[in-house]
């Protein structure tokens, strides 16, 4: 027993004292040979523990010696035993250099274990994943060019570094596969690992070529997707897994399979919505070159779009920049693929509604301005892909789910543009006439509390609604839409209430303004004026800003007043003409 | 039509898909919808440019037939191919990538030519472990998109027979919740399969014992242990998670029917709150439909019927919950009567609710209407009696109230009288012979006495006390 510990201690102290040559000679000395072989297990952990992140720079010869020793161990030890210890070390590696120094002997070992590799390879790849997961993901709220700074973040650099070590590790195994007859299982093991690499943490990293075309992360990602295409010649077949995974997520139910022998593609820790989203982002976002043959030209566009949108919807649930920007780029190129004038029948697929919901959420609540703007833009593109009936349905959906006046205003604008488009056709589309139009007008001209509604909060909606109505009254000179039958409703139910509301609000805000001005003149009296705008109590706001806010509110009132007066005028003119 | 181009196999006969057989296949079998088909293909543009080939991937191409995963021309064309057949399909752009093409390889409005070799196909296997535990053979294609999800209420027509001897053991139309089929003797295999059915789809399912009734069999249905089953299943309707505004009138009606059904089931199982929720969904789905002038009369009639029964049932459920919600019950019964003013159930339930609210007078009117419509309706007749009794009781209560009221007034008056009397000079003195307090006269004491319980209940009965005097009323 003593003898055993001897050799471990001996090598350890030799390495510590810088006697690398002697350390390296020990395995070849006859008296140590057996003992070395028996103690490989302990030696692996001792040797790796010598490595620090800066070892390779400060003590390159120590690093070299350790590398060499590990190689010798691979040669001498029982492969199965050493493999287990290496895998263990990989998972508990304390720094990236330790991780890196283990990968080389591990690869050698796997090559040796040629015949019974399947499982061992899977374990190795799993422990690489485990190590990757320990690196924290940087999350900075930066936008535009500033995002380039993230590349300098320490953790970001670690992620890139570790990722860059992985392809050299697995490449030989792919080459081997190509030489021999396809071993399906091994191929699937490597492929599912590669797909998982596109999930976390890669999903958080911005890979848009417009922001940083030469980034290392992008190049790594390109290598990975290339290798996936080499392994699985038809990458579109993973769309079936998207369907399966998204279904499981919805019902949050896994049909437990007792059999252990499931395909590597059914391992949810590898193939899941996150990794598949990463995969299809790389395939369809046009941000990466995909091998010519990898996408069979027989799949229908509808199938590709509808299924891939599931991953977009999944990514839209994130709040971080990386997944969101991926979701939006992917969404944009998918909508490009989608035929125009699509049938409203497609809307019975929940995926479209979910997309609108997801985009609305991002457009209103995202922290990043660029993301918000793109999302708004995509809502418009998506809706306009459909024929008029489908557009109306989606706009109704938008009016229903958006609790944001600006978003509702946007929906009204989309509706107006669609009507305008339809007017150019010889016959106005049926869904812009009669009861259907009225239904929409009721939704558009909506004051939640009648005359007492908060007009400041609703300003955007009211202004666009008034614009829309005026447009319609002026444009539809021949009453194709049947708007004239609805004019009374608009006047009594909307405009009158609006006027009452305006008068009340105006009076209210003018009094407030006066209050402020008075308190200003008698500044020492500290009159506490509290203003409630859009549900937020505004206190502790400098006097000037208070006034600004009130003035902007008053401006909005004036604008609404002007618009509504103009609308009434137009309505009256129309009535006279009739 | 030239032989060069082949025969038109498009359904519309618009020469969208032309097929020319190059090599005949074996037998007569062609793959069905849903089959996993394996082919080799080479696709070319009309000018001969090859844009894609499975041979370049050195791997045959697999896809599910008839599911819209591939371009239309393929779903139509491949379905006509026999095993081993090689043919050329010429596909018009409407049956391929349309006016946009599929950049970068396929230009807009491109006609495509595919040489396809049918290698083989497998019957669709829906079992999770892909060991041919549930095989589907689609007989009639369903309509639309979307499949029932776990937990949705589905209605199916099914016919089950034993694979071994063809004995039919189950024929019925059944409605159940997906995932709880075992309560209706529906085996797991059918439930798993239904999750990939579309509406109106009719399929033949071959189910291995593992997904059937296992080694136990099913005595009730007469299925022996370890039996392989063959079902013909048609999905008649199912509950979707679609939102109201995205449904057209017919879909709304269908969903409303399902909600009504669910509501009734919950009611039967005494889950009143769930039942209320379901009926209310019926209401919210349909309520605006009646005012919508764009709907047809037929649809409106159906909607009206559903609304009527939903409100009737709501009224019933509110009467059944503990404690009963009479107010809501009355509201919903009134709504139901709006649709059908002489509905007996509606009248009866509103009567009950009114009675519960203590409005017996109004209640009796409703019950009388019921009896007018159905003279033999005993329940209503009984309720009338109950109402009358209640009215009686109430009247008595009122009388007693008034009686006491007079009593109090009387007492009050007498006291004032006394005070006034005291104030006056007593000319006659305290006791003057027979005019003083004597026989035949009520003393103040006697007059102040409170009424007994009996008197309270029977204010109009006068009683003699033990002295033979009239008791104070």
From TrEMBL, chain A:
Top-rank taxon: Eukaryota
Residues annotated as transmembrane: none
PANTHER family: GLOMULIN
Molecular function GO terms recorded: ubiquitin-protein transferase inhibitor activity
GO cellular component: cytoplasm
Lineage per the UniProt record: Eukaryota, Metazoa, Ecdysozoa, Arthropoda, Hexapoda
InterPro entries tied to this protein: Glomulin/ALF4, YAP-bd/ALF4/Glomulin
Protein name: Glomulin
Automatic annotation (TrEMBL), chain B:
Coiled coil: none
Start and end residues of each stretch annotated as Disordered: 439-473
Reactions it catalyzes: [protein]-peptidylproline (omega=180) = [protein]-peptidylproline (omega=0)
Family annotation (InterPro entries): FKBP4/5/8-like (IPR050754), PPIase_dom_sf (IPR046357), PPIase_FKBP_dom (IPR001179), TPR-like_helical_dom_sf (IPR011990), TPR_rpt (IPR019734)
Keywords of the record: Isomerase, Repeat, Rotamase, TPR repeat
GO MF annotation: an example: peptidyl-prolyl cis-trans isomerase activity
E.C. designation(s): 5.2.1.8
Residue ranges with Basic and acidic residues bias: 444-473
UniProt-listed Gene3D superfamilies: 3.10.50.40, Tetratricopeptide repeat domain (1.25.40.10)
Boundaries of every PPIase FKBP-type domain copy: 34-122, 151-239
TPR repeats by residue range: 344-377
Top class in the EC scheme: isomerase
Residue stretches spanning the membrane: none
PANTHER family: PEPTIDYLPROLYL ISOMERASE (PTHR46512)
Name of this protein: peptidylprolyl isomerase
Organism classification: Eukaryota, Metazoa, Ecdysozoa, Arthropoda, Hexapoda
